[in-house]
Amino acid sequence: MPRNTRSSEEIEKIKTKILDAALAILFEDGFDDLSMRKLGRKLGMTAANIYNYYSGKDELYLTIQTRGFELIVDRFEQINSKISHPIDRLSAMISAYLEFGFSHSDYYSIMFSRNTPKYCDYVGSKLEPIAFLEKKAALKVSKIVTSLIKNLAGSNSQIQEKDAPYHTIQLWATLHGVISLHYSRVLQELDDNVLMMVDRLKKDLIRPFEPESKETR
Are 115 and 92 within one domain? Predict the structure, then answer.
């Protein structure tokens, strides 16, 4: 008797279950130790069955990366739609990025702290289109912030519009450093009140971008 065809909702649930299990393996064991057999054992599925949903571990990895960047992009876009003042939007984005890093250690570690394949490694392969989607999602994070900084340049003569990409990298590097120090528990060793210290850091990061009229009040 033929098996019933799964609904699109059922298929998505299975794919999400597979991605979540692959994420756990990537985080705990690393990219090199992810395999369809290992994933199958974790899920109680055969490797052959997993291949019905994903072509291999590289597609799983790229899909997880894309999903992680989309979580950040979605939060940034929510901030853009709800907060009108540019400096308040930048402040909220800094907080949102730190929150993502602190609360999604699995995603963050794989996205930013591991020596894993990048888009250039997939150029010319069958997975190049999927890798391009991952790169596009990653670049959107920086483009949103860069666009916001260009907007702020109009009210602060110390911020040049042409330097917006540099300021984006400068902010990103600082926030990544804070999250990395948090993961290694160095922050906890240096300061008893980590939350207060991070809040102060956020204010210091925002200060150079504040409108000059606000700075002189």
Answer: yes
Q: Which band of pLDDT confidence, cut at 50, 70 and 90, is reported for residue 157? A: confident
Range of the domain at 35: 7-54
Shared domain for 141 and 65, answered yes or no, is yes
pLDDT of residue 2: 40
100 plus 191 within the same structural domain: yes
Mean pLDDT throughout 5-11? 86
The verdict on residue 1 lying in a domain is no
CA distance 78 to 182: 26
The number of folded domains in the chain is 2
Same domain, 23 and 125: no
* pTM of the predicted structure, to 2 decimals: 0.89
23 contacts 107 by C-beta, under 8 angstroms? yes
In the structure encoding, which two tokens stand for residue 151, read together? 């907007």
Tokens of 40: 């199958």
| Distance separating alpha carbons of residues 76 and 210, to the nearest angstrom | 19
End-to-end CA distance of the chain: 78
Q: Compute the Cα dihedral for 153, 90, 208, 171 and give only its sign.
A: negative
Q: Is the pLDDT of residue 42 over 90?
A: yes
CATH at 12: 1.10.10.60
According to DSSP H, which parts of 44-163 are helical? Answer: 47-50, 57-82, 86-103, 105-108, 128-153
